[in-house]
Amino acid sequence: MLVRVLLLLVFFVNSSLASEFYNDHKEKSPCDKGLIFDSKKDSIEIKVLNNRKWVENLLKIIIEFNHPSTKTSNENVFNFRIKDSYKKNYKSKVKINYKEQNIKCEFDARIKITGDGWWHLDWDAGKPFASIQVKLLDGNINNIVNFKLLLPKSRSADNEIFIVSLLRYLNFIAPKTFYTKAKINGISKKYIFQEDLSKELLESHSLVEGPIIEGDERFTIEKKFKGMPFYPFSLSRISNHKYIRGDLAKMNTSLEAITLMNKIYIQSHLSHPHSIEKLNINLKIEDNLFTKDFSIYESLIYAMSADHGQSHDDRRFYYDPINNHFLPIYYDGKPKILDYEAHRLFDKKDLSYISKVLKNNISLEAVEGASEAILLIKNIDVEEILKILEQNGLKIKKKEFLKIKNIIFKRLEIMKNLKLDEIKFKTLESYFTKFSSEKNIVNLIFGNGNEIEICDIDLSDCEKKEISYENVRYLYAQNFNFLKDKNINNKIYLFIGKNKNYHEVIRNNKFKKHKINKNFYIKYNNQIKLNIDYKNQVLNIYQNNDYGRAIIFGQKVDDWNINFFGSKSNEQPSALKNFQNLTGCLTLVDIKLININLFADNSKCEDAINLIRTKGSVNKINIQNNMYDGLDIDFSSLSINDLSIDNSKNDCVDLSFGKYEVKEARLSRCGDKGISVGEKSNVFFNKIKISNSNIGVASKDSSIVKINHSNIDNTKICLSAYRKKQEFNSAKINVKNLLCKNFNKKIEVDANSVIIVENQ
Question: Is residue 18 over pLDDT 60?
Fold first, then answer.
């Protein structure tokens, strides 16, 4: 009898504490589970499906390169560039060999030749090979789907690994870069793996997607264009133009970016009429167009002899749509800091000679940023950077690194004390009229949205046109095939900016600034009114119409109540969801939050409240009656004590790229998801109650959600875990004490994602 009682007791305990494991039981492979590619151990294998055509294409390039016409009087210089016609896409299979796990993952892909110069080509044992561009059609490598495999000589080999590793360590934007072993159609070589400059790169630096600017590479240093020198017409373009895709707010942001950057390019041309190499930037051209970090970046680039990337066509910038300023992106600097040539100067005793050499090769911005750069170099954690370098395939002894660090330091010290002649940046005039002889060849384009104006070079003959919104992105990319001009190959088309008075263009700054206290301030447009109770620390924000936006910046917000009251207007303007590239009616950016309370009512923005790169603690968030999402938090680390959201037509809560903890959440009438967690987030909910929503909790794209207590009522789906975006992997939900009732489907999970339910 006693045994029977004990058995029953054991059964009862085990039943009450049982866990349920959910997936669709159709798991195909472990390749969707976030395997980390180790450059020291793992390798890449690429099989081009039509190898014969691939090799033929390579041979044609090499034959052209070896033609006598490519040689110049200098045997080390070649009049040669790889033509775009050779950069065809080839269907391929990419296999990733994870050695330690003994796992091989195969993905569909497209590859093509990349690069322009001869240094992207090589020949070994009778077989040609080259630098290539890879686009994975499924799967990813360390969250990367578009990347290059570069011949080391094309990027100065070890130097490239060194500078990218150091810049990323110092929090500058630079693409993930490391050595890897790769076999392409049976030919094994050592390559530099480098991610493309894309949305994924920006997100890995905790930046929202925005325009990436590059030089217009139609005009090159090596050749003249139609018999003319290239540099007068070398301006900028949007490289990630797919980002726009008919979104009016993104279109306006991109227009702002390219208009301002073209102003900088033209000013550089005017101030340095004989320079065809360096893009010289006037930091005074507009207030806050660049941060002080830009000058620091310039200093480091010149100190490490990476100034190849400072040319008109190699420059890369990110235009921050929240702060409305440019940030530099490292690209193709061809650094020489590890080479003897970089050290040779310091073998000489004559400091005046060293100073002269540096003076002739650096920018004014580099001199201005040298002091701050010195502090960064001084404070490097040597052990940490050595570990990063080794992870990226470059092993350097501590003694050697300290020697290199000392050379960078000495260069910066010299740069700091240089007295450069102040650059006389000219007031912009009708710059292109100087080239009136090219009137029949050069056409300038101006436009705002889909309405453009095509003019001759002196603006005397202009034609107005209307183009599709889809073609606007090609316009900003300096790609004019959509014009369907029969003579397009014999003409130069340049998109300049908003309007014909490009020499007088100013920033589109529609925001006022109000300092709340020494710790934070608010920026807002004309559609916002403020009411501030300083004594009780209450900030009330009133929206006059649906275009009203407010942004809070600063060091910290401590013990404040911040309330947003949306417009009562029933008007629904176009592009309302994303005005001035601000998804939130109220946005808090780059700030520490301490015990604050947030309230929002009647929002018609994409997000009622948007928190970006915030940290700290929030006492209470109460949001109600939203046309779209209630709360959106990105790139943050936050704890929230009490969260209440009612009546959001889309998601009530959207969390991404961060680490979050919520003590208690009450979410009701959510049009889509009560809680949506994505983009590699780690989230803990102690207690949640979700009612009358489409989906209770969704975890996606490499995210992990843990819930202690949950009460989900009247939903189509209680819990959902899946991968949505190619650059991420499977997701996970772990729930204790799940109460789910009145649902169509309790659990929805894809092949490799997991949902674990304990103590039901």
Answer: no
Q: What is the mean pLDDT of residues 130-134?
A: 92
pLDDT category of residue 551 using cuts at 50, 70 and 90: very high
Q: pLDDT (tens digit, 9 = 90+) per residue, 481-502? A: 888 776 666 788 899 998 887 7
Contacts 24+ apart (CB under 8 A), 61-69: 61/86, 61/113, 61/121, 61/128, 61/130, 62/121, 62/123, 62/128, 65/118, 65/121
Which residues fall within 8 angstroms of residue 684, CB to CB, at 6 or more apart? Answer: 660, 661, 662, 705, 706, 707
Ranges of H-type helices in 584-633: none
Distance CA 229, CA 439 (A): 15
The whole-angstrom separation of Cα 654 and Cα 166 is 33
CB 630 within 8 A of CB 653: yes
Q: Computed from CA positions of residues 619, 622, 626, 628, in that sequence, does the dihedral angle turn out positive or negative?
A: positive
CA angle 753, 143, 655 (to 5 degrees): 65
Q: Model's pTM, two decimal places?
A: 0.89
Question: Which of helix, strand or coil describes residue 705?
Answer: strand
Neighbours of 661 (CB within 10 A): 16
CA distance 594 to 556: 7
Q: What is the rounded CA–CA span in Å between residue 550 and residue 565?
A: 11
pLDDT one-digit tens code per residue, 502-526: 776 666 667 889 999 999 999 998 8
Instruction: Take residue 567 and report the two structure tokens written for it.
Output: 């417009």
